[in-house]
Design brief:
CATH topology: Beta-Lactamase
Number of domains: 1
Bound molecules: methionine sulfoxide
Organism: Undibacterium oligocarboniphilum
Family: Belongs to the free Met sulfoxide reductase family.
Shape: globular
Strand order of the largest sheet: 3-2-1-6-5-4
Number of helices: 4
Protein name: GAF domain-containing protein
InterPro entries: FRMsr_CS, GAF, GAF-like_dom_sf, Phosphatase_reg/MetRdx
Number of strands: 6
CATH class: Alpha Beta
Radius of gyration: 15 Å
CATH superfamily: GAF domain
GO molecular function: L-methionine-(R)-S-oxide reductase activity
Structural class: alpha+beta
């Protein structure tokens, strides 16, 4: 139904954006929209073994200071780590630094949290709203160096569509 994977590893992100808007329709729920997003990405991009969300929640207080952590949300793939503190692993780094992190080889990333030993490369994009990190989108691949600048740009624009259509 949504076969947008071309012969190369790059899907048509403009078409995916139209499909995403159509799939989300007028629904604004966090769970339904992030679940649909995960399924669309997982089945439209080639060579993935995991795609999904971690959402920001309050963590255990650290020395009286409030801390935040990432709690597993809707995803496609094998069972994964449930909670990731801000600053830990690729997801926690993207959340703490409020920037997209592309890792060509996860085995060379200090502190990488290996949920699935099949993962070799990864992209994590934070969900930013008014300066706050609402969560992250995490996508893993068994291929080394799977995620290009074009993928980063395409995925970031898909997330903009998701965020505008969803009540967080
Ligand atoms: N690899 C991630 C952990 C999450 S799983 O891959 C789904 C990380 O280091 O943040």
């Amino acid at each position: 139904m949504f076969d947008t994977t071309s012969a190369s590893t790059h899907p048509d992100y403009a078409l995916l954006g139209k499909q995403l808007s159509s799939i989300l329709g007028n629904e604004r729920g966090l769970i339904v929209n992030t679940a649909q997003f995960s399924a669309l990405i997982y089945h439209s991009l080639s060579h993935l073994n995991w795609a999904g969300f971690y959402l920001t929640v309050p963590g255990n207080q650290s020395g009286g200071n409030p801390v935040q952590e990432l709690l597993l949300g809707p995803f496609q793939g094998k069972v994964a780590c449930t909670r990731i503190p801000f600053g830990r692993g690729v997801c926690g780094t993207a959340a703490a630094e409020k920037r997209t992190v592309v890792v060509p080889d996860v085995h060379a990333f200090p502190g990488h949290i290996a949920c699935d030993s099949a993962s070799n490369s990864e992209i994590v994009i934070p969900l930013l709203k008014d300066g706050a990190v609402l969560g992250v989108l995490d996508i893993d691949s068994p291929q080394l160096n799977r995620f290009s600048a074009e993928d980063q740009q395409g995925l970031e624009s898909l997330l903009q569509i998701l965020m505008a259509a969803t009540d967080f």
